[in-house]
TrEMBL record:
This is Sugar phosphate transporter domain-containing protein. Its main location: membrane. It is a multi-pass membrane protein. The chain crosses the membrane at residues 12-31, 43-66, 78-96, 133-150, 156-174, 186-211, 223-241, 253-275, 281-300. It is found in: Membrane. GO terms for cellular component: membrane. Keywords: Membrane, Transmembrane, Transmembrane helix. It comes from the Eukaryota.
Length: 316
């Protein structure tokens, strides 16, 4: 196959992977919003455990059908990944409860600089000036869209700090483990999903009770709430898989930068479905700035020298 054809095929697969992640991520946000706001199912950590339990079931079926080959992931590597991932989930939930929405959004935006720092220190990645500036433009645009009231307290700052670093480490580790142990997205999910499902379903009900003072076993389940729970779990399979595919094909930084397109789409769909009272000039301006920054990043990071590794050795 000619080099141009290979490049075209890679670009098509990359675009499909991003679209898969965007569609499933936006879909699960809308379904979870309806589940929690309309039906009062506020047990976010337990729901995430159910998401990974459903993902585990998918990996079992795919392994039985022969689509996932047997592979090895050392227990200590799996343990580190699960710790990072679970601290990310719990930290985000606690951060949202203890912080203002504005500071929570700032914390989420800070994941990009933290992910950059991890790649610079651990992978010896070097960014060009244009790549750095494009990331700054994305941060500025999303910040203008989402950051409103900003108030900080000590425990909220600690929760946000843990959430940001654990999320950045978890996403970095997805890319690292796939490279180091030659694992595909399905194979890595086959190792991590059962461990995450087990741990989150064990701690989830207690954490949710602490956060909401409500017990998941005392929730008034009905047909429609169960339909939305099942729908959320089904979409989550695609969300989990597409995240691993995207980070495996790209890097955690690219996943974070271009992933803010989901933030823009959620805002637009929120205005479309839930009213236009939040749609004002500075939000529209922020969206435009963010999209320009994403396009600039995509162009700058793929140019020679835009984002390159100084050493090809893997971190120890």
């Amino acid at each position: 196959m000619a080099p141009a054809s290979k490049a075209d095929k890679k670009a098509s697969v990359d675009a499909a992977a991003w679209m898969f992640n965007v569609v499933t991520s936006v879909g699960i946000i809308i379904v979870n919003k309806a589940l929690m706001a309309t039906y009062g199912f506020s047990f976010a950590t337990t729901l995430t455990g159910l998401h990974f339990a459903t993902t585990t079931l998918m990996t079992v079926v795919l392994r039985w059908l022969g689509y996932i080959q047997s592979s090895h992931l050392p227990f200590l590597e799996l343990l580190k990944f699960v710790i990072f991932a679970n601290f990310s989930i719990v930290g985000m939930n606690v951060s949202l409860m203890w912080n203002s929405v504005g500071f929570y959004q700032i914390a989420k935006l800070s994941m990009i600089p933290v992910s950059c720092l991890l790649e610079v220190v651990l992978d010896k990645i070097r960014y060009s000036r244009d790549t750095k500036l494009s990331i700054a433009v994305v941060l500025l645009g999303v910040g203008v869209c989402t950051v409103t009231d900003v108030s900080v307290n000590t425990r909220g700052f600690i929760a946000a700090f843990i959430a940001v670093w654990s999320t950045a480490l978890q996403q970095y580790y997805v890319h690292f483990l796939q490279r180091k142990y030659s694992l595909g997205s399905f194979s890595l999910l086959g190792h991590t999903a059962p461990a995450q499902a087990t741990s989150l379903l064990l701690i989830g009900p207690f954490l949710d009770y602490w956060l909401t003072t409500k017990r998941v076993d005392a929730y008034d389940y009905n047909m429609w709430s169960l339909v939305f729970i099942i729908l959320s779990c089904t979409i989550a399979v695609g969300t989990n898989l597409s995240q691993f595919i995207c980070i495996g094909r790209f890097t955690a930084v690219s996943f974070q930068v271009l992933g803010h397109m989901k933030t823009i789409l959620v805002l637009i769909m929120g205005f479309f479905f839930f009213g236009k009272e939040g749609l004002n000039l500075h939000v529209v301006l922020g969206m435009i700035i963010a999209v320009v920054g994403m396009i600039w990043y995509g162009n700058a990071s793929t140019k020679p020298g835009g984002k390159e590794r100084r050493s090809h050795s893997l971190p120890t």
